[in-house]
Automatic annotation (TrEMBL):
InterPro entries: TDE1/TMS. It comes from Phaseolus vulgaris (Kidney bean). The chain crosses the membrane at residues 49-67, 96-116, 137-158, 164-188, 200-221, 233-251, 258-280, 300-322, 342-363, 383-402. Pfam families: Serinc. It is a multi-pass membrane protein. Its main location: membrane. One of its GO terms (cellular component) is membrane. Keywords: Membrane, Transmembrane, Transmembrane helix. The keyword Membrane applies. This is Serine incorporator. Belongs to the TDE1 family. It comes from the Eukaryota. It is found in: Membrane.
Length: 427
C-alpha cells in the first residue's frame, strides 16, 4: 500500500470519527434538552397542584361552616346514622365542624405519608402528588365520610388534639411571617448601587409606622372609650409598648436593623390586637365598643367579614405550606434542575394542621361552642389566643434582633475568661 493510500484511509477514518462524535454530541444535547423539557413540565404540574389542594382546603372550610350553621335543617337524613344521636345533634354544630375537620385532616395525612420523602421530579411519588386526581377524589370522599361513623367520644378527643395542632399551625405561620419580614428588609437594605430601593424602603417604613400608630389610636377610640374597659386598655397599651420597644431596639447602634422590618412587625401585632378586640365584648354593661362600631355590625358587613376570614385561613395555610425553606436547618443545600420545587411533605403537614386550625376558629376554641350564624373566631378564648399570639410574635421578633448581640457578648466573655486563665498560669 502506498503512502498516499494510507494517508487517504487515515483521513477518511478521522472524518468518520469526527462525524460519529458530532452525532453523539447532537444526541446528548437532544437528550438533555428533552430531560429539561420533561423537568419543566413536571415542575409546572407540581406548582399547579398546590392550587388544587388549596381549592380542596377552601371547600372543606365551607363544608364545615355549612354543617355548623345549616346542616341540621338541610340534611335531616343524617339522624339515621347511629352515632349522630337524636335529630343528628352529634353531627352538626361544633361536633359537625370537628367531623369535617377530621376528614380533611385524614386526607392530608394520607397525602403526607405518601409524599413525605419525595426529592426528584422523576419519582413516582411526584407523579402521585401532581396527578391521579380521580384516585385522590375517591380518597377525599372516603376521608370525609369516615368521621361521620366515628363515636362522638373519639371526635371529642380529636377536638382536644386539634387545639394543640392549631397552636402548632399558628407557630409555623408566625415563623413564616417573620422570615418574610426579614427577607423584605434585606431586599430593601440600602447600598451604593440601590439608592432607589433605599428611598422606597424608607417610604414603606414610614407608611407602616404611621399605619400602626393610627391603628393604636383607632383601638383606643373604638374599643376603650371609658376607663371601665380596663382589660381593653391593658391590651391596647401593652401593644403600644411593644411597638415602641421594637422601634427603639431596631434603631439601637448595636442592632442597627432599620425601621422597615420593625414597622411591618408593628403593623402585624396591631392587626392581631384588633382581631382580639373584635373577638369579645368586655363586659356587656361597660359598653366598651363605640356606637359607630355597633352600627357597623350589620348583616352584610358580618357576611363579608366572615368570607374574608375564610379566605385568610386558606391563604395562611397556602403561604406557610410552600415556605418550607424557612424551616430548613441547613442553608447550604444545593438545588438541582430535577429537584421538586417545594417540600411536599411539609406542604401537606401544614394543611393537615390547618384543618385543625379552621375547626378551632369555627367553634371559637370551645368544643361545646354553639356559635351564632356567620360568626367565626369570637369569644374570650379566641381573644386570648390572639393576644398570646401577638405577645409571642413580638417576643420572637425582639429576640431575633438582640440574639446576635447576646451571642457576641458570650463569645467575648468566654474569650476574656480564657485569657485570664492563661495569664494566671503564665509565670
Amino acid at each position: 500500500m502506498s503512502a498516499s493510500e494510507v494517508t487517504t484511509e487515515a483521513t477518511a477514518a478521522h472524518a468518520n470519527l469526527r462525524d460519529t462524535e458530532s452525532v453523539l454530541q447532537v444526541e446528548v444535547v437532544s437528550y438533555l434538552e428533552l430531560n429539561r423539557v420533561d423537568y419543566a413540565v413536571g415542575r409546572k404540574k407540581s406548582l399547579r397542584a398546590r392550587y388544587y389542594f388549596g381549592i380542596i382546603f377552601l371547600i372543606m372550610n365551607f363544608i364545615a361552616w355549612f354543617f355548623r350553621d345549616y346542616g341540621q335543617g338541610v340534611l335531616p337524613f343524617i339522624h339515621y346514622i347511629k352515632v349522630c344521636g337524636k335529630e343528628g345533634e352529634d353531627c352538626f354544630h361544633a361536633l359537625g365542624v370537628l367531623r369535617v375537620s377530621l376528614g380533611c385532616y385524614i386526607f392530608f395525612l394520607v397525602m403526607l405519608v405518601t409524599t413525605v420523602k419525595t426529592r426528584k421530579l422523576h419519582e413516582q411519588r411526584n407523579l402521585w402528588h401532581s396527578g391521579k386526581w380521580e384516585v385522590k377524589s375517591i380518597i377525599l370522599l372516603v376521608s370525609m365520610a369516615l368521621p361521620f361513623f366515628f363515636p362522638s367520644e373519639l371526635v371529642q378527643i380529636y377536638g382536644e388534639v386539634a387545639r394543640i395542632g392549631a397552636g402548632i399551625f399558628l407557630l409555623l405561620q408566625l415563623v413564616s411571617v417573620i422570615q418574610f419580614i426579614t427577607w423584605w428588609n434585606n431586599y430593601w437594605t440600602p447600598d451604593q448601587e440601590r439608592k432607589q430601593r433605599c428611598s422606597f424602603g424608607l417610604l414603606m417604613s414610614t407608611l407602616f409606622y404611621v399605619a400602626s400608630i393610627c391603628g393604636i389610636v383607632y383601638l383606643y377610640t373604638s374599643y376603650a372609650p371609658s376607663t371601665s374597659c380596663s382589660l381593653n386598655l391593658f391590651f391596647i397599651t401593652w401593644t403600644a409598648i411593644l411597638l415602641a420597644a421594637m422601634m427603639v431596639i431596631s434603631l439601637h447602634s448595636k442592632v442597627n436593623r432599620g425601621l422597615l422590618s420593625s414597622g411591618i412587625m408593628a403593623s402585624y401585632i396591631v392587626f392581631l390586637c384588633w382581631c382580639a378586640m373584635r373577638s369579645f365584648s368586655e363586659p356587656a354593661t361597660a359598653r366598651c365598643v363605640t356606637e359607630n362600631q355597633e352600627k357597623g355590625n350589620s348583616d352584610w358587613i358580618t357576611i363579608i367579614g366572615f368570607l374574608i376570614a375564610i379566605f385568610a385561613i386558606v391563604i395562611a395555610a397556602f403561604s406557610t405550606g410552600i415556605d418550607s425553606k424557612s424551616f430548613q436547618f441547613s442553608e447550604d443545600k444545593v438545588e438541582h434542575e430535577d429537584d421538586i420545587p417545594y417540600s411536599y411533605g411539609f406542604f401537606h403537614l401544614v394543611f393537615s394542621l390547618g384543618a385543625m386550625y379552621f375547626a378551632m376558629l369555627f367553634i371559637s376554641w370551645d368544643l361545646n361552642n354553639s356559635a351564632r350564624k356567620w360568626s367565626i373566631d369570637v369569644g374570650w378564648i379566641s381573644a386570648w389566643v390572639r393576644v398570646i399570639n401577638e405577645w409571642f410574635a413580638a417576643t420572637i421578633y425582639i429576640w431575633m434582633l438582640i440574639s446576635p448581640i447576646v451571642r457576641q457578648n458570650k463569645i467575648m466573655d468566654n474569650g476574656g475568661s480564657v485569657q485570664e486563665t492563661v495569664d494566671s498560669v503564665m509565670p
